[in-house]
## 1
Amino acid sequence: MDSKLRKIYVPMSETAFYILYSLQQPQHGYGIGQAVKEMTNDEVSISPGTMYGTLSKMEKDGLIDLVKEEDKRKIYQITDLGKEVLKIELNRIKRIYKNSLGEKYYG
Amino acid sequence: MAKTKTQMKIFTIADYKEEEKWLENQHSNGWKLIKINLPFFYTFEKVQPEKVIYQLDFKEKEATDDYIKMYEDYGWQHLGYYLGWNYFRKYESAATSESDKEIFSDTESKIEMIEQVFKTRMLPVLTIFVAVMLPNFCGLDKLDFSPSEIVFTIIYLVVFALYIWGIIHCGIKLTKMKKELEK
């Protein structure tokens, strides 16, 4: 991963994290939004402007790929590069979580 | 046929929040936006007064089908694309939560839109100003001041003044909005 991507996505915003995390399964923008609402019990909601912009950026940066277009909806999925970024991010979050409990964690 | 009215109102690229509020006010007074004909000319149709949310999203290029579809999935009606702005509307009764009333859910994306406006609108305008308007302005003293030249010069000075006002107004306002969001 190049340093430019690292700068943008490590750490990433909450919005970016939930979108990338959700795209481990193929999904379209609104579907991602619904899934995120569901898993956070409505605590995190991503509006269409934010969703569209983040998806476009992630596609441009090669973190996600357009799988197909269905009924005018673009369906995306995470790429290998995206998985690499997500893994780093998940590790970071795990470290923070463990540390917050007073435990040591080195990833 | 429903009663309609056309109203002229000028909003600069930095006044989109005011434009949204104005459209919402119109609708709550029973005037629903039908279309924007020329820049600054809004046509409304007489309807029942209602609480409706209007939101504007800046995009350099015309809206694509997938873009409109995503907004529709979220319950936003796309009203059209005029001069870089996509107009959206949602009836307040259809909004399920506070976050459902906005097209942007985080600060980053709001800032990003302002940066887009800066890059694709302010920069070209500034370039034209420096490359064309300013040299022309400096050449004004060489005129021979015949009647037609004077008329031309006056028109030119008015345009020049409006141009400067526009750049300063939009520049300051957009910067302020961005700073406010970055706090």
Note: The first strand of chain B starts at residue 4 and ends at 8.
## 2
Amino acid sequence: MSTTTAEGSSHETTPQGIDQGSYESDPAAFLRQRRKRYGERAAKAALVGSAVLSVLITVGIFFALLLPAVDFFSEISVGDFLTGQRWAPTFADASFGVLPLVTGTIWTTFIGLLIAIPFGLGAAIYLAEYAPERIRRALKPVLEVLAGIPSVVYGYFALFFVAPTILDDLLSIEIGTFSVLAAGLVLGIMIIPTVASLSEDAMTAVPQSLRQASFALGANRMRTTLRVVFPGGRLGHHRIDRVGCLPRSRRDDDRGAGGWHTGADGVQPP
Amino acid sequence: MECDGVDVYYGDFKAVCDVSLGFGYNEITALIGPSGCGKSTLLRSLNRMNDLIPEARVEGAVTFHGQSIYAKDVDPIEVRRRIGMVFQKPNPFPKSIYDNVAYGPRVTGMKAADMDDLVEEALTRSALWDEVKDKLKQSAYGLSGGQQQRLCIARTIAVRPEVILMDEPCSALDPIATSRIEDLMAELRDDYSIIIVTHNMQQAARVADRTAFFTALADETTGDRTGLLVEYDLTNKIFSSPADERTEKYITGRFG
């Protein structure tokens, strides 16, 4: 670029208020005067701060758990903890076997998924593939509200309604107050909306062009759903396993459901 | 396959108005015209792909072997199996090359004595076999755009339709890939009837036996553009001595 053309164009394009003189006399030098842009730096610092904060909190939680755990294991041997079959930390005759909590978690999760996956995916398939747009738009927010109900509410539901009324009275299944069946059932019901909502997101994200291709080959809706939309949304389903079911169910176990079935009388219900 | 007085609506909006034309067996018919003249809409009404758009509605008769495909007792799934479609953008499934071709026969419950043979035949017919025979198990997404489009054609012919609808099949492809698809169409004509929508007049002139020229009429009050058929004839005739002035203007580049 020759100097003359640079000058010629700068007359027309440079906005007022910028020191044109220095640009025109030496464009290269002008371009080298890199401005500091403090606002940009401040914004970046604030964002880095937010990111670091969450990491710090996580690290803090880790240590807050680690230090008491070290104390704990200096009194109770790891072997007793892992293989003990009785969890009664608040009794005079305290016992710290974690096994019942572990098996309880596994059982409730298993029963919960047994319920949540078929019903959750069923609801998602209906919403994403079958429901008219109008119904979908009405139902999706309802689903998301349901997914937001605090798990404590579900805990009470399991403890005071599902276990005594439905399982005991109506179905005459003899169970204790802290039934793994009741906990699993309610856990399943609790995560249906989450499973459905996330699955629906994943399925809706599958491009319309793939559905069209499938229909144009003479596939019906169910075949299209099962063979194209479903595998296409698999990445999303994978996310559900991580984000939807497990943390939520584990969290709920932590709050009490896990203790129900164990006969651990010392554990308070949520 | 014939259209008689076909109107297509989206809700209250009339997208295509009163189209009547017949498509010949083992012929390539091109639908040309400026954007928004309803070519694609008409094409999609020929195998009931418009069913998937809730507001779309077809009036008039679209008949296939003398049977109206919109009659109540006609199964749209069977219609689409007989009248396949290739889309504007290549849209292979996120599956292997083999599974893409085998998809149609599998979901339509075709009794193939040997699926491997069927896949090979379809890929051979779509001039893709030599390029992919060593990587049938690899993802179709690893293919180039032109190869993907030929894969989509292979996928379509694997269910052995009678008619193949092509909606601007080359518009996302470079000239070399385009010419391969055009060669392919010329070969497929022996066994299939092909109806192609194209924006490319040279393409219509090169491949089509007959050409239908559409234009759009704007409603003076609402500004809605409705497509209508201007002229339908042998491609030679359309391009050498069009009967309608609007056709002549369009093909000589003075309009649209």
Note: Residues 1-14, 236-270 of chain A have pLDDT under 50 and may be disordered.
